[in-house]
Amino acid sequence: MALDSFLAEVLACPCAVHSAVRVHPDCVECITCQSTFPIRHGIPVMLLDDAMPGPRGIGIPVHEGSGE
């Protein structure tokens, strides 16, 4: 089940940075920290406790080409 387009536009990562997200078929991904949040039964679960942290952690920006 696809997310409503309005809902997809207003979702944000719940970390202190509150970045915009990308919606994938099975998860929602923060564009800043690349943490992912599951979509269960068509509902995005935007809880930090249920998130899969990005490469540097939840809310920590991931910069391509940073050399880190």
Describe this structure in words.
The chain has 68 residues and is mainly beta. The chain contains one helix and four strands. The chain has one helix at residues 5-10; strands at 21-23, 27-30, 36-40, 43-44. A four-stranded antiparallel beta sheet has the order 1-2-3-4, with no helix packed on it. Strand 3 and strand 4 (43-44) form a beta hairpin. It is globular, with a radius of gyration of 12 Å. The N and C termini lie far apart (37 Å). The relative contact order is 0.22. The mean pLDDT is 87.
C-alpha termini separation: 37 Å
Helix count?
1
**Structural class assignment:** mainly beta
- Overall pLDDT: 87
**Beta-strand share of residues:** 15-25%
| Spatial arrangement of strands, main beta sheet | 1-2-3-4
Question: Uncertain regions: pLDDT < 50 for 5+ in a row?
Answer: none
User: Helical amount among residues, as a percent range?
Assistant: under 10%
Order of helices and strands: HEEEE
Query: What does the main sheet amount to?
Result: 4 strands, antiparallel
The rounded Rg comes to 12 Å
Q: Say how many strands there are.
A: 4
What is the molecular shape? Answer: globular
